[in-house]
Design brief:
By secondary structure, the chain is an alpha/beta fold. The chain is built from 16 helices and 19 strands. The model is unreliable at 1-17 (pLDDT under 50). The structure holds 6-O-phosphono-beta-D-glucopyranose. 6-O-phosphono-beta-D-glucopyranose binds at residues 245, 265-266, 377.
């Protein structure tokens, strides 16, 4: 039962405090490194509050934020509450509940780059654990600057806060993305982390995997017998994945982003994960290993690999000034903490394939960008036209219409045209799944028109969707790594992405900016598809 379901059921008096199979039954301490950062405020603490409110924590627990800034417990709690309210994750009536929840939240000031901090922190942690009757189960969440990850893991081990050899009480470490910045650094980070922790203690997070709609990809494909038989090169013309954002570099986001770019920030992880889920073979079970194994097979078979021709199948872009929602916005190079001559890409489009029996020859086209016309994430599976084009319209002369006919006012061309059927997974916003297909228009003429069958979460289910971080934190606390990335998933994705990044670096500096904020990206991205006779899907503004 999802947090929100339990909350609703409790509100309706249907659920008391009876144990549920998805509750965390054991006591725990959750320690967040990077406690004063945006992620902790906007996502992690609101998610933990909702889980607590939904009765998912069945035993005592504490949450300790570790940060470098000087503040006391109450300041920290108040800041967290304000942020939860500002992000709409807490409502007016939740104040009293928040105060009770906040009694479990602590702040510890420490410079986590300094070895001596860990001894003092260990003392504080043990004192709090004793006071609250906890048994030493610990989940460390690394939400700091990624450069700090190796040091923190090492120091946790040195201070005996994280132990590789002991199963009980358990120690787990959640590592935020980006996990490395190329193949070499990801492998080095992995080797380093796995010197101090076992693989089953490491939770590499990709929050897209916690999104309800992303999880539904597997339920939809493998929980119904009707759709998956169509997912192959016989029926599918191409698969299109769009992750468009209208946001840019809010706050000081540019400080991180300018060293990363769209490829590292979202393609290597979110987009390739979506691709893997839509293209993978059915796993033999829903166990973590079986799912990870199948995803890795997809990532390993991504093509093309010949980066000498990278510009034929990969496009990068960077936004210039423009208008979003009627408001003028800066060019990327004018954003705070971004270099004035930055060559960082804020847009990527790729025309890929998956070289397997099922998918050989089917284009997988991906695009993502900041400051695009609107925020939308979608996976669209576009089907082929039927083998015999019965509904292809004829011109008046009986010739096949090529859509450039010149038949004059009596033109009947286009009347019977069948559009390709499309199955679209809308990940956000308007979460749902739709199937567009051609239907005969009522009337005496044989005219076809695209129509849509729609599944909308909002209509079929009464509760709000849980946030990705709610699900992922709960899973980490329960020891379920299915929705996290296994080591080889991360490195296999880097194996594909790194040569592209290197090829781009070898090229002369790109002529940026090459798309206006508020547009749908650079023209080169359209050209990328014209080579394969496909077009980007259009979304209403
Ligand atoms: C993060 C990226 O992982 O995902 C951000 O670092 C991006 O740059 C964000 O904006 C998008 O997440 P969501 O859930 O809002 O689609």
């Amino acid at each position: 039962m999802a947090a929100s379901e339990i909350i609703q059921a409790q509100a309706a008096g249907q659920v008391g405090t009876a144990p549920s199979p998805v509750q965390v039954m054991e006591p725990f301490a959750l320690i967040i490194f990077g406690a004063t950062g945006a992620l902790t405020h906007s996502k992690l603490l609101p998610a933990l509050f909702r889980l607590w409110q939904g009765n998912f924590f069945a035993a005592p627990f504490i949450i300790i934020g570790v940060g470098r800034r000087d503040k006391n417990e109450n300041q920290f709690r108040d800041e967290l509450r304000d942020a939860a309210e500002a992000h709409g994750r807490m409502h007016a009536g939740d104040r009293e509940a928040w105060d009770r929840f906040a009694g479990n939240v602590f702040y510890h000031r420490a410079d986590f780059t300094a070895a001596e901090s860990y001894g003092k922190f260990s003392e504080r942690l043990q004192a709090l654990e004793k006071e609250r009757g906890l048994n030493g189960n610990r989940l460390f969440y690394l939400a700091t600057d990624p450069d700090r990850f190796p040091l923190i893991v090492e120091q946790l081990a040195a201070a005996k806060l994280a132990r590789r050899e002991a199963d009980r009480p358990w120690t787990r470490v959640v590592i935020e993305k980006p996990f490395g910045k190329d193949l070499t650094s990801a492998r080095a980070l992995d080797e380093h982390v796995l010197r101090f922790l076992r693989e089953d203690q490491v939770y590499r997070i990709d929050h897209y995997l916690g999104k309800e709609t992303v999880q539904n990809l597997l339920s939809f494909r493998f929980g119904n017998a009707v759709f998956d038989p169509l997912f192959n090169s016989r029926y599918v013309d191409h698969v299109q994945i769009t992750m468009a954002e209208d946001g840019g570099m809010e706050g000081r986001r540019g400080a991180y982003y300018d060293g990363a770019g769209a490829m590292r920030d979202v393609v290597q992880n979110h987009l390739l994960q979506l691709l893997a889920l839509v293209a993978m073979e059915p796993p033999t079970s829903l166990g973590a290993k079986d799912i990870h194994d199948e995803k890795v097979k997809v990532l390993r078979n991504l093509v093309p690999r010949d980066v000498r021709e990278v510009n034929r199948w990969a496009v990068r872009g960077q936004y210039g000034a423009g208008t979003i929602d009627g408001k003028p916005v800066h060019a990327y190079r004018q954003e705070e903490a971004v270099a004035a001559n930055s060559a960082t890409e804020t847009y990527v489009a790729l025309r890929l394939g998956v070289d397997t029996w099922r998918w050989a020859g089917v284009p997988f086209i991906l695009r993502t960008g900041k400051r695009l016309a609107r925020r939308v994430t979608e996976i669209a599976v576009e089907f082929k036209q039927p083998p015999l084009r019965l509904f292809t319209p004829l011109t008046q002369n009986g010739n096949l219409c090529d859509r450039t006919c010149n038949c004059g006012p009596d033109c009947r061309c286009g009347i019977a045209q069948a559009e390709p059927s499309v199955l679209a997974f809308r990940i956000q916003p308007d979460e749902g799944i739709s199937l567009s297909f051609s239907a005969k228009q009522p009337g005496m003429q044989l005219a076809l028109q695209p129509v849509r069958m729609d599944f909308l979460y909002g209509q079929s289910f009464k509760q709000a969707l849980p946030e990705a971080y709610e699900r992922l934190l709960l899973d980490a606390l329960r020891g379920d790594a299915t929705l996290f990335m296994r080591s080889d998933e991360v490195t296999t994705a880097w194996e594909f992405v790194t040569p592209i990044l290197e090829a781009w670096e070898r090229q002369p500096a790109p002529r940026f900016p090459n798309y206006a904020a508020g547009s749908w990206g650079p023209v080169e991205a359209d050209q990328l598809l014209s080579g394969c006779q496909r077009a980007w899907r259009q979304f209403q503004q």
